[in-house]
Design brief:
The chain is of the alpha+beta class. The protein has 2 domains: 2-26 and 115-210, D-Amino Acid Oxidase, subunit A, domain 2 (D-Amino Acid Oxidase, Chain A, domain 2, 2-Layer Sandwich); 56-108 and 215-251, FAD/NAD(P)-binding domain. Helices cover 21% and strands 36% of the residues.
C-alpha cells in the first residue's frame, strides 16, 4: 500500500506493506497474488459447481422457521416471483451488516461504533499510460487538501474503484447525495490528471465504516449461524485479511 498526495506524480507520504517475496517467504509458503473480488468470485462460482454446490442467484429468502430437527426456508425468485420451500439441517446467514436474520434472532453486537459514511465509485478510465511503477500497488491512498481517498485498480489500470472518505467541502456522504459529475471531480482531484481523460462512472455506492462484533454467532436453538459482515464488521482499510486467509488455506 502507498500513501501519496496524488495518484499520478504526487509526493509519496508513506509506504506500507511493500511487496517483498523474500520477506513473504519467511512467514508463509504461499506467494503473493493479485486477485480482486471481481476476479475471485467467478472462480469460486465455477469451483463450487465442481464440488456439487447448488448456487441460486436472483433469489431472496422471505421466511424461515427454526425447528428442533432443522430449519424451514421459503425463498422467492425475484424475476419469476415463484416461491420454493426447503428443509435444511442448518442455515448460515451471510446477509450483510444490516442482517435481517441477526435482527430477527435479537442477537446484539457491540464495539467502537460508526466511524464515517463514505462512498465507493466504480469507474472506467485508462490510467495505464500514467501509472508507471505505481501500477504494482494493490491499494493507493490519496491525501491532499482537496480529498482523502483510495484507489483500487484492476484491468491493468483501466478500471477499478475509488473510495472517498472526505473532501474539502464534506466529511459525510448521505445516500444519493453524490452525482456522477461530483464523482468525476473526485476522480480528478485524487488522480492528479488535469487533461480531458474520458471517465465513465458505472455506479456510486454508499457505505458506513464501522467496527462491531456480535455477542454470539448462533441462534438460541443452535441451527442458525451468522457469518461475515452479519456477525462482525471492521473498517476495510487495505482489505488484506480475507486475501491472506484464502491464500493460506489454498497453500495448505
Amino acid at each position: 500500500m502507498l500513501i501519496v498526495e496524488k495518484l499520478i506524480g504526487g509526493k509519496v507520504l508513506a509506504r506500507l506493506q511493500e511487496s517483498d517475496p523474500m520477506e513473504t517467504a519467511k512467514v508463509t509458503p504461499v506467494s503473493r497474488m493479485w486477485l480482486t473480488q471481481n476476479m475471485f468470485e467467478p472462480l469460486l462460482h465455477s469451483r463450487g459447481k465442481e464440488f456439487g454446490a447448488i448456487q441460486k442467484f436472483s433469489t431472496a429468502v422471505v421466511h424461515y422457521e427454526e425447528e428442533d430437527d432443522g430449519v424451514l426456508v421459503v425463498v422467492q425468485d425475484v424475476e419469476t416471483l415463484q416461491y420454493s420451500k426447503y428443509k435444511a439441517q442448518y442455515v448460515v446467514a451471510c446477509d450483510g451488516n444490516r442482517s435481517p436474520v441477526r435482527r430477527a434472532e435479537n442477537i446484539p453486537w457491540n464495539g467502537p461504533g460508526i466511524q464515517g459514511n463514505n462512498i465507493s465509485v466504480n469507474l472506467k478510465a485508462d490510467l495505464a499510460p500514467y501509472l508507471g511503477v505505481r501500477a504494482v500497488h494493490g491499494v493507493t491512498y490519496i491525501n491532499n487538501n482537496k480529498i482523502n481517498a483510495g484507489f483500487r485498480l484492476e484491468g491493468g489500470g483501466k478500471k477499478g474503484f475509488l473510495i472517498v472518505t472526505k473532501t474539502n467541502d464534506r466529511q459525510d456522504f448521505a445516500p444519493d447525495s453524490v452525482t456522477a459529475e461530483d464523482a468525476k471531480r473526485y476522480f480528478f482531484d485524487a488522480s492528479g490528471i488535469e487533461n480531458d481523460l474520458p471517465v465513465e462512472v458505472e455506479s456510486i455506492g454508499y457505505w458506513t465504516s464501522a467496527a462491531f462484533n456480535c455477542d454470539t454467532y448462533m441462534s438460541r436453538r443452535g441451527r442458525i449461524f451468522l457469518a461475515g459482515d452479519a456477525s462482525h464488521v471492521v473498517p476495510p482499510t487495505g482489505g488484506m485479511g480475507g486475501n491472506t486467509g484464502i491464500q493460506v488455506c489454498e497453500g495448505k
